[in-house]
Design brief:
The protein is mainly α. It has helices spanning 3-8, 14-22, 25-38, 43-67, 71-78, 82-119, 124-132, 136-150, 154-178, 183-191, 200-208, 213-226, 234-267, 277-288, 290-322, 332-350, 356-380, 393-419. Helix 4 (43-67) crosses helix 12, helix 4 (43-67) packs across helix 17 (356-380) and helix 6 (82-119) packs antiparallel against helix 15 (290-322).
C-alpha cells in the first residue's frame, strides 16, 4: 500500500489540530453566553464562522503542502522589503508568542475547572491545593501537555488531539441531547439570520473565537509535515487535506452549536444569570441531572487541554518559521518556545494571577494581526511559486470576504482591549 493511499484513508489529520485549537475555554464561554443571552438566535454566526475557517485553512494547508514550508517561512520569502518585513515579523512574534503565553493561562485554568468539577471537592488533588494555595490541577494538566509535546512526534500529537476532539464531541453533543434542545428553534436560528438587541459584539466574538491567526500557522506547518513535499503526490495530498478539513472543521462547529444549545436550554428565558461556565455546569444538575453536569465538565477539561497543547505548538511553528529554523519538534528554538508558553500558562493559572495587562497587549496585537495575516495569506496564495495551485478567482473572492470580516474582528478586539484601560 502506498503512502498516498494511507493518507487518503485517514479520517482525521492536521485540520483536527485547528479544531482542537479553536474549541477552547474561550469558545466554551462565548458560546455559553450566546445561548444563555440570545437562545438559538445566533447559531447562524457559528455556521458563518465554520465557512470562513474552512476557506482560510484550505489555503493554509495548500500553502504548506505545495511549498513544503510553514506560513512563517513563507512570510519571510513573501515580504522582502526590510522596512515592511521586520515590523511584520515582529508583530507576528508578539501576537502569536506573547499572546499565546497570556491565553495559555486561560486554557489551563479552563481544563482545571473541568477537572475539579469532575472529581469534586473530595479529591486528593483538591485537598492538596487547599493546603498549599496552588492549583495542582493546573500543574498536572500543564505537565501532561508538556509531556505530549516533549516526545516530539507529530503522529503522537495528532493522535492525542484527535482523542481530545472526539472526547469533546461526545461530551458536548451528549450534554445537548440530555438538555433536550428545541430543534425547530435551533434550525430557525441556523437558517434565518437575526440580530437581537445588543448582540453585535457577541456575534463578532463567536466568529473571533473560531477564525484565529495562529491556527493558520499551525495548519500550514502541520500539513507540510503530514504530507512532505516530494514525498507524496501533491494532488493526492491536497485531496486528502480538503477531506480532512471537510470533516474536522464542521465537527468543531457542531461542538460550538451543542454548547449554545445547552446554555439556551438551561438559561434562556429564565431569571438565572450566567457569569461563568462553572455556574452553567452546576445549574444543569437540578434541571437535567448529574449526567449533563458530568458531560459538560468533561468537555471543558478536554477543550482546555487541547488548546493548552495547540497554542504552544502554533507559537513554536510561527517563531521557528520566522527565524528560518527547521520545523522540527525536537529543535531547540522550537522546544524552548512551547516550553516557555506552557510554563507561563501554568504559573498564571496555578497561582491565580490575572494577566490583565498582558492579555490587553495580546488583544491589541492579535486585533492588528488577523487582517494582516489574512492579507498576507491571500498574497502568498497568488504567488508564482505555487504554480497551478495558486488561488483561482472564486477562492480569491471568498478570501476577500473573510478579509472584510477579519477587519471587523480587528475593530472588536481593539475596542475590547482599550475598554480595559
Amino acid at each position: 500500500m502506498s503512502t498516498v493511499a494511507t493518507h487518503k484513508k485517514t479520517l482525521f489529520g492536521p485540520a483536527t489540530l485547528v479544531t482542537a485549537a479553536f474549541i477552547g475555554p474561550g469558545t466554551v464561554i462565548t458560546a455559553s453566553l450566546a445561548g444563555a443571552n440570545y437562545g438559538y438566535a445566533l447559531v447562524w454566526a457559528l455556521l458563518f464562522s465554520v465557512f470562513a475557517t474552512m476557506v482560510l485553512q484550505e489555503m493554509a494547508a495548500r500553502l504548506g503542502i505545495v511549498t513544503g514550508r510553514g506560513l512563517g517561512e513563507n512570510l519571510r520569502e513573501l515580504v522582502q522589503q526590510p522596512l515592511l518585513r521586520w515590523p511584520l515579523l515582529l508583530l507576528v512574534v508578539v501576537a502569536i508568542v506573547v499572546g499565546n503565553a497570556a491565553y495559555q493561562g486561560g486554557n489551563i485554568s479552563g481544563a482545571a475547572l473541568g477537572a475539579e468539577a469532575l472529581f469534586a471537592d473530595n479529591s486528593v488533588i483538591y485537598t492538596w491545593g487547599i493546603a498549599t494555595g496552588v492549583n495542582l490541577w493546573a500543574l498536572l494538566l500543564g505537565a501532561l501537555a508538556a509531556l505530549i509535546l516533549w516526545f516530539g512526534q507529530y503522529k503522537l500529537i495528532e493522535r492525542s488531539l484527535i482523542i481530545l476532539v472526539l472526547l469533546m464531541s461526545l461530551a458536548f453533543i451528549g450534554t445537548m441531547v440530555l438538555t433536550q434542545p428545541n430543534l425547530l428553534a435551533l434550525l430557525q436560528g441556523a437558517l434565518w439570520p437575526t440580530m437581537p438587541d445588543g448582540a453585535v459584539l457577541t456575534v463578532v466574538a463567536l466568529v473571533g473565537t473560531t477564525v484565529v491567526p495562529y491556527s493558520l500557522f499551525l495548519h500550514a506547518a502541520a500539513a507540510a509535515q503530514k504530507w512532505p513535499r516530494h514525498g507524496i503526490d501533491t494532488k493526492e495530498a491536497l485531496h486528502a487535506a480538503r477531506q480532512d478539513i471537510a470533516i474536522a472543521i464542521p465537527l468543531g462547529g457542531l461542538i460550538s452549536i451543542a454548547i449554545v444549545s445547552t446554555a439556551a436550554s438551561a438559561f434562556f428565558g429564565s431569571k438565572l444569570q450566567l457569569d461563568n461556565v462553572a455556574q452553567l455546569a452546576q445549574a444543569l444538575t437540578p434541571l437535567f441531572g448529574s449526567a449533563a453536569t458530568w458531560c459538560l465538565a468533561l468537555g471543558l477539561m478536554a477543550a482546555g487541554l487541547s488548546s493548552a497543547i495547540t497554542a504552544p505548538l502554533a507559537a513554536a511553528y510561527a517563531l521557528a518559521g520566522i527565524l528560518g529554523k527547521p520545523l522540527n519538534l525536537k529543535q531547540p528554538v522550537f522546544r524552548l518556545t512551547w516550553l516557555f508558553i506552557i510554563i507561563c500558562g501554568v504559573v498564571l493559572s496555578s497561582l491565580g494571577i490575572k494577566p490583565v495587562s498582558i492579555i490587553w497587549f495580546a488583544q491589541v496585537a492579535n486585533g492588528i494581526l488577523l487582517p494582516i495575516i489574512c492579507l498576507c495569506l491571500l498574497l502568498a496564495m497568488n504567488h508564482a511559486v505555487l504554480g497551478q495551485y495558486k488561488n483561482n478567482r472564486k477562492q480569491n473572492i471568498l478570501g476577500l470576504l473573510v478579509l472584510l470580516v477579519s477587519l471587523l474582528l480587528s475593530w472588536r478586539s481593539l475596542a475590547l482591549a482599550f475598554a480595559l484601560l
